[in-house]
From TrEMBL:
Enzyme class: hydrolase
Origin organism lineage: Bacteria, Pseudomonadati, Pseudomonadota, Betaproteobacteria, Rhodocyclales
Entry's EC annotation: 3.1.4.46
Gene (UniProt): ugpQ
Protein name: Glycerophosphodiester phosphodiesterase
Domain GP-PDE: 10-246
Record keywords: Hydrolase
Amino acid sequence: MRALPEWPWPTVMAHRCGGALAPENTLAGLRVCKAVGCLGVEFDVMLTRDGTAILIHDETLDRTTNGSGELMNFSDTSLWTLDAGSHHHASFEGEPIPRFAQALERCRALDLATNVEIKPAAGYERATGTAVAQLAMQGRDPGAVPPLLSSFSSTALLAAAQAAPQLPRGWLVDTLPEDWKTHCHALDVVSIHTNCAHLTEAQADAIKSSGIRLVVYTENDPQHARLLRSWGVDTFITDRPDLIRI
Ligand code: G3P
Ligand code: MG
């Protein structure tokens, strides 16, 4: 199988598309991310009841859209008219929930390194990992940089690995467990994505010495980011891509 180009590990990636500067998980966020000079982006992908992969963080619609209730109670057709922009600011009124395929295409057009967080609704871990990996491979220019897939769900990561073994994968954790090496080996990941608030210098050292890339979320403090950079952190996921400049 032909090797894909190496993932670029941008120093800064905007969290949920545009961080705090735009409604989360929207195409408007991608535009804003690019406009502030950010080279990479992270966003969350979940499946709808009909099996369409969309950008959304919560299993319910209430926090980020003008809809209400469980995502799984909505059919695809009724989702596309929801407003996922007004909750952030009136100037984003009418911003729709994007399909994953649309977001991928926009990232390619904007030349943004793309970290896709597989965010399965409970019980849909395997289906979501498989769907995201398959869609990430569809219509790809073989010479283009692939998306980096990450997840808190081991089941989703293993399903993604089975569906598209050639895509790079990252393992998401809140705090690093003692046996992290065993997990990384079993999941065959290239990176660990950990909470910036819990990372220690000793952990950073051990991860970097093992050859695994180190990504932290959600780093919004420039001074703390500089400290973690000195520990070897490769990539910072941030709500403030306008402030975190390393
Ligand atoms: O991928 C890093 C970060 O996005 C994980 O947390 O809850 O914002 O998806 P969350
Ligand atoms: Mg996320």
